[in-house]
Amino acid sequence: MSHKPKSCRTAALPRSEFRTKATEYMDFLAAWLQKPRQTASVVPSSRYLARLMVAQIDPQDGGRVLELGGGTGVFTRAILETGLPPEKLEVVEINPAFARGLRRHFPHVSVLETPAQIVSTATAGEPGDYQVVVSGLPLLAMDRTLHIDILGEAFRMLRPGGSFIQFTYSMRPPVNRAILDQLGLDVVRAGQTVRNFPPATVFRFFRKGEQD
Ligand SMILES: C[S@@+](CC[C@H](N)C(=O)[O-])C[C@H]1O[C@@H](n2cnc3c(N)ncnc32)[C@H](O)[C@@H]1O
Questions:
Q1: Tally of domains in the chain
Q2: Do 27 and 72 meet the contact criterion of CB atoms below 8 Å apart?
Q3: Mind listing the pLDDT tens digit for each residue in 188-199?
Q4: Is the peptide bond between 198 and the residue preceding it cis, with omega within 30 degrees of 0?
Q5: Ligand 1 contact via 69 beta carbon (within 6 Å)
Q6: Does residue 94 have its Cβ closer than 6 Å to ligand 1?
Q7: Partners of 66 in the beta sheet?
């Protein structure tokens, strides 16, 4: 029986990782060319940003996690790396090509092709079952009505004390104060990274009076 030399076997791994990354980047660029406002970025988020986005998740506490705007799955991977069981995660993605890719890469995770603004019509969990919502949605490209609908849906599903985590390419929260007051929400900056293109800030939204 012939064996490949060890150096050949180890050298194959980075190349396949490179191919996966290159495919992710091409898929993202193609999605952006088709629907620039919906995709809102020409490249996927970095793993450094992904780590900031999942820092609130407690994999042991039994609560479910909802990811909005899964794209090519950078945050999905980081959520699963926290140790959260895959059956506790649902990923929402309205681009059918991205949804197909997410199902292929994460076969044990439920992928919902439902718009985030009506996601409660499709979730497996009930209102109050969710500990964290991780959002990669392009809120800056969305209008006031969508902000109200998306945050309203997310907080319908989040339990008391639950957090909505959102990144943005601006230093300021992507939702204005009047909308937060209308929904009884507050927001704090949860992190920032320059190791992303473009550099990004992470915000945590929560119900007023619950945390600061
Ligand atoms: C900026 S990309 C982020 C993708 C990925 N989370 C990342 O960080 O690389 C935004 C994603 O949200 C999806 N999206 C946009 N509007 C949506 C909506 N209303 N409901 C669900 N997904 C949406 C887009 O198709 C796209 O995949």
A1: 1
A2: yes
A3: 999 999 999 999
A4: yes
A5: yes
A6: yes
A7: 90, 133
For residue 38, being part of any structural domain is answered with no
Rounded-to-integer distance, Cα 170 and Cα 162, Å: 24
- Tell me the whole-structure pTM to 2 decimals: 0.91
Q: Between β-strands 130-135 and 185-193, what pairing exists: parallel, antiparallel or unpaired?
A: unpaired
Is residue 188, in this structure, part of any structural domain at all?
yes
Ligand 1 contacts CB of residue 123 (under 6 A): no
Domain that holds residue 174: 44-207
Token pair, residue 95, equals 């681009």
Closest Cα to residue 132, out of 89, 86, 168? 89
- Helices 96-105 and 6-34, packing angle to 10 deg: 160
> Is residue 57 within a helix (H) or strand (E), and if so which, with residue range?
none
**For ligand 1, atom 11, which residue shows the shortest CA distance?**
69
Q: Which atom of ligand 1 is nearest to the CA of 115?
A: 20
Residue 110 has pLDDT above 90, yes or no: yes
pLDDT value for 212: 57
Q: How far apart are CA 152 and CA 41, in angstroms?
A: 25
C-alpha 83: how far from its chain's center?
16
Please report whether residue 166 resides in a domain.
yes
Q: How far is CA 124 from CA 80, 102, 121, 132, in A?
A: 18, 17, 9, 15
